[in-house]
Design a protein that fits this description.
- The structure is a single chain.
- This protein has 448 residues and is of the alpha/beta class.
- It folds into three domains: 170 residues, Rossmann fold, CATH 3.40.50.720; 152 residues, Dihydrodipicolinate Reductase, domain 2 (2-Layer Sandwich); 86 residues, ACT domain (Alpha-Beta Plaits, 2-Layer Sandwich), CATH 3.30.70.260.
- The protein starts with 5 loop residues before the first strand and ends in a 5-residue tail after the last strand.
- Bound molecules: L-homoserine (HSE).
Amino acid sequence: MEKRSVNVGIIGFGTVGSGTAKILLRKQNELRHKLGFPVVLRNIADVDVKKDRGIKLSKDVLINDAHRILNNPEIDIVVELIGGIHPAKEFILQAIKNGKHVVTANKALLATDGQEIFKAARKHCVDIGFEASVAGSIPIIKIIRESLVGNKIQSIYGIINGTSNYILTKMTEEGVDFTSALKEAQALGYAEADPTFDIEGIDSAHKLTILASLSFGIPFSFKKIYTEGITKITPLDIQFASEFGYKIKLLAIAKQAGNDVEIRVHPTMLSKGHLIAKVDGVFNAIYIEGDAAGSQLYYGRGAGEMPTGSAVVSDIMDIAGNIIKTQGTVASGDPPRREHRTQTKNWIQDTGCRIKKMEDIQTCYYLRFSALDKPGVLSKISGILGSYNISIKSMIQKGRKIQKAVPVVMMTHEAKEKDFVLALKEIDRLSIVSGKTVYLRVEGGELI
Ligand code: HSE
């Protein structure tokens, strides 16, 4: 019997599941026309089958048991949209074992267990689509894997968490503190009730792990990535950054540095003139530099029902196209044949490239001390910086108080992180310095 349709089962009827279902159902005619075959949404499984998701489903589509999708021989593509590690991982591995192609938006799972999942997919000759795992609607996975395949990627960095970008934008535009901006993000539904992953940089690090693996051939290694969130950013530092000509953004950065790759997530000062510094609100943007293509910038919505659903549907359509090409005459329900090579095979090859230790990176820094305003204070601080080979580029001191400390702000030339950390320790021990020195890394080279 010839295959007459590509059958899809979605596990997880939350925000992204609903968006995906809406696109598949509302655009079914256009999708069929483009593919030449119908893509049929056979089932959606969720523990809650009562909640109104704003979409009408035919009878028997919505079920409460994911195993009915995983074990249904007629389903070709399993779409995992429940997120988290368990039971998402078990569902995906079961789907792969049953010869089903998988589409997932699960960045946390891929960042931690991607190696195991891709190995299983290779073994069973099935595809894994994960476009929706990074930057929502921006097709960055496809760009790296397909459009820039002829390039050696030199750097990829950007804003890949909309929630933290919204918070920083609010703080910058309205001068409010972190807590108020977070509360507003929560009220608007941008931040989860537990916003830890977004504000601590963990969500960005999950996504960066995936981008770095694809771009540099580094096995998924979330735990090795330096991760720092935005919880300590203050309106005062945003204001000083602005006076120096910078904005503060939570950047996810992966770049070639000699034989190694720097991979890090942290609040970063970017020159106001940099295109990424102009990306505000919940938007995402990714800058990528390839040796042949040069620099490119991608901008768009990184979250939400329809933007993320758009990315999921793009994977479903790609895989459906492959199924039609390779299994067009295979009876529905047959697992993919071994000779049908899948894209999964060569995406993430270990190139032997390693992650540079954080202490070895070199960058420029912004520092804010609270120091007594009296003779000799600056020479002491600059003396310590100098003894660690750190050269000061510019400085601002605000106010004048005889007893109490005043903020002294400095920008440095490029320095080694290891030296910088040691110098800070020494400075923070000085009796003329009160409290812990605040610092931020600056990207974009020696711009001022
Ligand atoms: N929580 C993410 C963000 C969206 O704020 O960008 C899903 O990846």
